[in-house]
Structures are given as structure tokens and as C-alpha cells.
Design a protein that fits this description.
Blueprint (H helix, E strand, L loop, with lengths): L29 E3 L4 E3 L7 H5 L8 E4 L17 E6 L2 E8 L13 H12 L20 H12 L8
Parallel strand pairs: 2-5
Antiparallel strand pairs: 1-2, 3-4, 4-5
Length: 161
Amino acid sequence: GPLLNATIHFDYVPSAPPEEVIPSVDSDIVIDTEKNTAKGIAIQTNAADVIAQFEGAENIQIVDKNGIVLAADALVGTGSKIQLVENGEVIDEVTVVIKGEIDGNGIIDSDDARHLLRNTLFPDVFSVVAEDDIDGNGEYNSDDAIYLLRYTLFPEVFPLK
């Protein structure tokens, strides 16, 4: 009969593309669904390496804080957005937060400490993506900026907590 050449798949479920930004099981990235942020991305990680850590990576893109898609070798920083794109439309996105990386360039240096200090003095002028407790004392204040500056100078002595 007509079924002689049929192929039968047992327990076959076609994998549906993800509907939200989900890190793959072996990734260190953690999504905070309340704050809509992604943490656990190391400093100086490029876009291609971050994208590879997500389910449905072929549908993931990363844009900088101005909404411009990052090149594969560009560094991912705080304020970047990881976006899930389907048919050219963004259906989900989360904002990257890297502890101590304040200005969004993917590198921690004294510019970040300066920006953080200015934020504690003039929060309306120098905004930050996340008010991060850098020194681990449970509060966000100018001490975090000072600690961050010390970290940029002596990372072994002043680790990020």
C-alpha cells in the first residue's frame, strides 16, 4: 500500500523555538525575571561568546545601550540588551548587568569608578543601569565607587564581592 515508504518517528517532538531569552543549561548566565536583567557575564566577553550561551542562539542578537547591534567581536557591557528576534521582530529582551562594569564598554577601569561616584552625587545626571553593591556591605553608596577604584588598581587585594 501507500505506507511502504513512510518513516515513523517514535516520541518525536519538533523543537519549538524559545519564546523568551533563556541561557543554555551549561551557561553561567542567570536571568532575573523580576528586574529583567542578565548577570553572570564575565568582563571582556565578546558578543559571539555571549550569544553562544543561549537557547536558540541563531535567533539571539545583542545591541548596545543605543540599540545598535554589536559585531561578533565587540565586547558586551552593562546596559547592552540580549534580544530574541523572530522574523525581524524583537519578542523578548533582557538587560546585561556586569558587577563593577558601569559605563557599558565591557571593561572595568577607573572610568567606571568615576561614573559610579558621580552617580552617587548626581544620580539624575549620571545614571546607572543597576545600583550595585560593589563592596558587599549590603548598601549602595559612594563607598562602592571607592572600592571599585581600589579594585581597578589592586584587583587581588580588593576583589568584587
